Amino acid sequence: MFEILDRRTSLTGNQIKILAAAIIGDALEFFDYFLIGFVLAFLIGPWKLTFGQSATVLMSSGIGAIIGAYAWGWLADRIGRRKVFIGTVLNFSIATGLLYFTPDNGWIYLSILRFFVGVGVGGLYCVDLPLVQEFMPSSKRGWVGGLVTCVIPLGVGLGAVMGALVGSGDWRLLFAIGVLPALLVLLVRLWVPESPRWLCRQGRYEEARKSLAWALQMEPSALPLPTAADAGPIIKSNWLDLFKYPRSLVVSWLGNAGAQTGVYGITLWAPSLFVVLLKVTPQEAAKMMILLSVFGFIGRLSFAFFSELMGRRNAGGLLGFGAGLMTIVAGYNYDVMFMGVSAFWLLLAVAFFFADGGFAIVGPYAAEVWPSHLRTSGMGSAYGFGGIGKIIGPVGLALIVGSGNYLKPDVPLPQIPLAFVYLGCWFLMAGAVYYFLGIETRGKSIEEIDRELTLAPDLPAATASVRQA
Predict the structure, then answer these.
(1) Contact partners, residue 467, CB within 8 Å, separation at least 6
(2) What is the DSSP string of 97-133?
């Protein structure tokens, strides 16, 4: 049955609806997630926050994302992609809305609610990409997966625009706007059916045929009834099964850790660093972030194209090496002006082309390197392990600069170059992992990838609990 899907050379209207739901979800998801960077720029002065307190606020969502990625990713393999998609959107939208009630000087309240925002964001990211990929022909999978992530900088850009427009005393309104993603649940309920490949894995063959027929806009009777041969045998997986695929684990876990540590360390701190280093207002800092978002968006479009042009391994190497070098160069030029413009700002924008743009590879590829019965569990584990970067990225910068220092423009920060060397080295590690250890998936169907992984010597056939359909 899935051979008919893979022979398609264009997307139907319903496949575009699935893609649109995921695109809107990712944009609004990361709008919610990165709002705190813009809000913090308003609070560092009035609340007299130290680097340590600010880092606690920033890293709390990272801790939540680790737990959310593991838990929601595992759940999506057990109860289905669609239900988990809806649950995660409600999770982070409601938590963001509750931040509207943050009391003055309530950085602990901020940290607690941001933890729950992270739980939802970590979960959604790990289910929407596999859901989209499982409806797409193999010739479009890399490009479409990259396209889903392309809108994440637009979510950050939307936060930058909102941050530039609100007054200093109106920062809570940003959190009220963060409730809007909950409306996406209505679109998902109307548009998106359950993944046909997941349904096949559960032995629900008639439902799988109806789901794929809807996506391809044909009558179910025009498709053959799938069997175990279409999507593999029905496997009762265990989370520990992930360790039977060591290469998939190393590539997806370390690639995510390197990329997330670097990009979250920069993105969450950048608005506040612009205020401190360049002596601009929080509104001006938010406007400066728009340029970084534009470069990130262009980068994601480019890397979505690169994934098919040069393959996943080469594109992954390019993102890591490019982002690492540009981040280090930016750090060493934090106090340099070029024709009256901050070189630090311009260099970070170029770094974002690789650092943020490369997530058009990081996310989709982390799902592709796992077999079908472990796809969301594997991607969730990779995103969850990489979520350590949401902690050690912002916290690492704070520790290097001095966690007890106050975020004030008159505090000298000679350790900034070393802090950016630290972040840049994480990108370089990700590039090395993708280029030297990566599994090339370009042009291969999901079933081909499954067969190659199953035949690999690190998966003993007797270890999976298999029952016949």
Answers:
(1) 233, 234, 236
(2) HHGGGPPTT-HHHHHHHHHHHHHHHHHHHHHHHHHHH
Spell 311-350 as b/e; 16+ CB within 10 A means b.
bbbbbbbbbbbbbbbbbbbbbbbbeeeeeeebbbbbbbbb
Q: Alpha carbon of 199 to those of 10, 114, 117: distances in Å?
A: 24, 34, 29
Among 137, 153, 92, residue whose Cα is nearest residue 359: 153
pTM over 0.85: no
Among 43, 208, 148, 117, which residue's Cα sits nearest to residue 365? 148
Strand, coil or helix: 301: helix
Instruction: Give the CATH class of 2-197+205-224+238-454.
Output: mainly alpha
pLDDT digits (tens, 9 = 90+) for 75-109: 888 888 888 888 888 888 888 888 889 888 888 99
Tokens representing residue 461 in the block: 């056939």
Checking if the pLDDT of 354 tops 90, the result is yes
Domain coordinates in residue numbering, the chain: 2-197+205-224+238-454
> Any idea what DSSP says for residue 239?
G
Q: What are phi and psi of 336, to 5 degrees?
A: -100, 140
Rounded distance, CA 411 to CA 342, Å?
A: 19
